[in-house]
# Entry
Amino acid sequence: MPITMIKIKKNRIENLFYLLVISLYFGIFYLSIGFSLKPFMVMLPITLMLSIHKLKYNRLYVFEILMVTFIFFHLMTALNFNYPESSIRFIILYIILFMFYFTLRGLIINIRIENLELIISKAGLVGIISSLSYYLIGVYASGMEYIGNEINFYGLLLDRSTPRLTGTVSGDPNIFVFYVTLYFFFTLTNLHSRMNKIGFLLATVAIILSLSRGAYISIIVGIVVFLLVSRNRKTKLKIIFIAAILFVIILKYQDNFNIINYITQRFNEIAQDGGSGRFTIWMNAINTFKENPMGIGINSTIPYNLEHFSKAMYVHNSFLEVLLETGIIGFVIYLSLWVAMFYCSYKLIYMNKRTVYIFITLISMFIQLNSLSIFYNEALYFAILLLYRYCHEYYYIKR
# Structure
């Protein structure tokens, strides 16, 4: 086959992958058809049809085996038949996520690491700029009168009279940060290019504007871990310098934007609202698990809480939700998945230091999952996908 034709096909694969990654940043624009039909779900079959002949597969790594095992075990809990309608919705969701992961897994092997990282950089920048723009439209639409609760103005959410950025990813500021965590740490650890420097600054601003308490803690922990793990003194100095500049800017414009007051207010509210009522919900989940040690079944949390506690809500803790729905066996499998991912991502750092962002991204996501119910989220599966690609590149070649 002529070299020109090979390049065209490779470019098509990379372009399809790039568009699919970008679509992850626009989840707010979904269609409700019994479940949320997001842009990436529309892009997925198109990508599969145009690239099916180029998909390549190899053996699964331990963390992938555990991931698949957990998914199938979670699906099998539908046999409890406690809330079949709720279970069916999640069965469909898992089929889509399974298709998402293994389509991209077969595709990503055709993309060189350098080109893959460029895709992450470009797609992330598009996503962050779009989210900040959507937020500014919301600021304008609100007339900068931040009074009310659970009111959306485009990319801005009024949460107890506090303006929070939601962007184009989700209607939830906490989920927004979960999505952009990988991009944030990727740019943080790759500040050698101008595009990544701009992306890092914009991502930092966006995360600050989300006013997400759990996100702040997880991002700070991730940065501290990076500073401890990294041996690059120059990068460390850059991070400290940028942090100092951001702090000075925030102090200078504090009177105009009140950002420090909003942040302080968010943390002070923990004592008043128990973490938005999370502590009470968590205790209910633990008591429910004691009564149902083998789990209540897939996606049964909301109907169960409505029936027994008169509140239709998630647990707001992915690990407790896994324990609640899948029981002790599913919980052990899920924790084993995380242990395997931490082990593999940490081991990768010693093979190639450019992979450090995967390790700190997983740490940050792990912390965020303790206050979010999104263990089935595509952003997490994308991070696992990247872990696979780096493992294949460095484990496989080394062997």
User: Anything to note?
Assistant: The first helix runs from residue 3 to 23. Strands lie at 31-32, 36-37, 151-153, 156-158, 163-165.
